[in-house]
Amino acid sequence: MTTRMDVPAPSRQGAAKLVVPCLIGGLVALSLGVYGRLHHPTGVAVSIAGFSSPGSVKAWLATGATVFAIIQVGSALVMYGKIPHIAGPAWLPRLHRWSGRIAFLLAVPVAIHCLYALGFQSYSTRVLIHSLLGCAFFGAFTVKMLILPKRGLPGWVLPVAGAVLFTVLTGVWFTSAYWFFSTFGIKH
Amino acid sequence: MNRTMPIITLLTGAAVGVAVLVASMLATAAPPARTAAAAPAVTVTRPSPLPAPASVPARAHYSGEVNRARVSVAIWVRGGHTSAYLCNGNVIETWFKGTAFAGRLSATGKHGARLEASYEAASAAGYVIADGIRYTFSAPRVLR
User: Are residues B38 and B103 in the same domain?
Assistant: First the structure.
């Protein structure tokens, strides 16, 4: 009887560990959205040399983040043994961690530029989806970072968190960089 | 894996974010602050990029393409007023309304869109911000 009782307990306890990270992540996403809504958009922000416009800087940074996110999914699939006949090399976890860090750090300046210069907007479907997903991405990333060090989580938690992050980032990319490149052509 | 690394990642991202935010605030706040401080003294003598008001037309129409993108801009000047239209025949389309004075055009459109330009007898040049994209242009005058 005690063993029967004990079996689901760690799983439920493990899932309970998600509550605080999810609340903090939700707060991060909400704060970004509220800031983007309240702050009067300036239209311009700091620019980076070597690109024709802030728009193309952002499109390329977002594309870089998305490429590293694809590396994230690929390395995670191998680490979880989901790719048949491919055993992950020893440096794979390091690749996974560093590609994630780089993707995140590439996305941060883009988000700040968006929030500062353009704000949270809803005047078209593309812009609304982009605003929502952009805020959600940083909330989801915060959740993933906060749950990573936790022990005893259910096995599905990290893969689901990673999948959500990748899906959201892909949505962010399609509603911004893809729109930019398809409207203006691929250029610097 | 070091258990503090994810927190360090988050904090690094937050630090980068704050740095970019402060840089943006400095980049956008400095020019208006300087203008505001200097405005009372130099209103009359401030050097203008186009210091020849005699060549500024009261009525004019300019039309051209923005730099490095297939987007057209058309600008009308009528007395002290200006209106402008930006489009690429597809997804980009914005109307602007504003003022024209002493060779300077300043107009705004929906959703934070903005146009700033100088104009003279032969052409108008400046920049447009619409949909988060900044376009520079130099449009020749359309004569009829």
Answer: no
B66 with B136, same domain?
A: yes
Residue in chain A closest to B3 (alpha carbons) equals: A149
Q: How far apart are CA B63 and CA B76, in angstroms?
A: 9
- The answer to whether position A66 is within a domain reads yes
Q: How far apart are CA A4 and CA A53, in angstroms?
A: 63
Structural domain including B81 reads 53-140
Nearest CB partner across the interface for A105, out of B7, B12, B24: B12
* Tens of pLDDT, residues A46-78: 666 556 666 788 899 999 999 999 999 999 999
Same domain as B60, residue B23: no
Please count the structural domains in chain B. 2
**Count of domains observed in chain A:** 1
Name the residue among A62, A173, A31, A42 with its Cα closest to residue B132.
A42
B-chain CB neighbours of A53 within 8 Å are 68, 133-135
The tens digit of pLDDT for each residue in B39-58 reads 443 334 444 454 445 588 99
Q: What is the span of the domain harbouring residue A77?
A: 53-184
Question: Please, what is the Cα angle at A184 between B85 and A115, to 5 degrees?
Answer: 80
Residues of A with Cβ-Cβ distance to B114 under 8 angstroms: 43
Chain B CB contacts of A180 below 8 Å: 133
B66 and B39, same structural domain?
Answer: no
For residue A2, the model assigns a pLDDT of: 45
What per-residue confidence (pLDDT) applies to B143? Answer: 85
Reported ipTM exceeds the 0.85 cut:
no
3-class DSSP state for residue A19? helix
Tell me the C-alpha distance between A5 and B37, whole Å: 73
With respect to residue A85, please indicate whether it lies within any of the assigned structural domains: yes
What pTM value is reported for the model? 0.79
Residue B27 pLDDT greater than 90, yes or no: no
Interface mutation vs chain A, best among B4, B110, B131, most A CBs within 10 Å: B131
Q: How far is A144 from chain B (nearest CA, A)?
A: 9
